[in-house]
Design goal:
Blueprint (H helix, E strand, L loop, with lengths): L7 E7 L4 E4 L5 E14 L6 E13 H10 L5 E14 L5 E16 L1 H8 L30
Length: 149
C-alpha cells in the first residue's frame, strides 16, 4: 500500500448542545463533544467498569446546520471523519493544543425529538438526509444496514 489513511468511525452520545460559529461569506462550523464508552469486568474484583472517552467533533456548513437543528445533548450518532490536530496562542500567551474529529459523514441513530414524537404517536419532520457525505451529496452507504454493528 503506497498511501496512508486517516479515518475515524465513532458511535456515541452528544455530551452537550452544538456550538455554532458563523463566518463572513456564509460558512459556518459546529462543534460538540461526543462520548464513547467501553464497558468491561475487572477480573480481580469482578466489578463492572465503564470507561468514557471524549472526542471533539467538528462539522461544517450545511452538515453543521442539520446537526444543530436535529441533535441535542444525549442523542446518539454515527460519525465518520478524520483526525486533525491543531494549535493556537491563548490570550495569556500560552500555546494550546487540541485534537479534533473533522466529520465527513454522519447518521443520526436516535434523537430526543424522535423519542418524544414516538411517545406522542407521531413522527417528527425528518431532515432531507441525516447522512451527509462530503456535506454536499449523498453517498450510496446511507443505509443503516451498512453500519458495522
Amino acid at each position: 500500500m503506497n498511501g496512508t489513511l486517516n479515518k475515524v468511525l465513532l458511535i456515541g452520545h452528544l455530551g452537550d448542545e452544538i456550538k455554532m460559529h458563523y463566518f463572513d461569506g456564509g460558512n459556518c462550523i459546529g462543534r460538540f463533544p461526543l462520548a464513547t464508552n467501553e464497558i468491561y469486568i475487572n477480573k480481580s474484583t469482578g466489578e463492572k467498569i465503564t470507561s468514557t472517552e471524549w472526542h471533539n467533533i467538528v462539522v461544517r456548513n450545511k452538515a453543521a446546520e442539520i446537526c444543530e437543528k436535529y441533535l441535542s445533548k444525549g442523542d446518539k450518532i454515527y460519525i465518520e471523519g478524520r483526525i486533525k490536530s491543531r494549535q493556537w496562542q491563548a490570550e495569556d500567551g500560552s500555546t494550546k493544543y487540541t485534537t479534533e474529529i473533522q466529520v465527513t459523514e454522519f447518521t443520526f441513530l436516535n434523537t430526543k425529538k424522535e423519542s418524544e414524537a414516538t411517545k406522542q404517536n407521531f413522527k417528527p419532520e425528518a431532515p432531507e438526509s441525516s447522512k451527509n457525505s462530503n456535506f454536499d451529496s449523498l453517498n450510496e452507504h446511507s443505509h443503516n444496514d451498512d453500519l458495522p454493528f
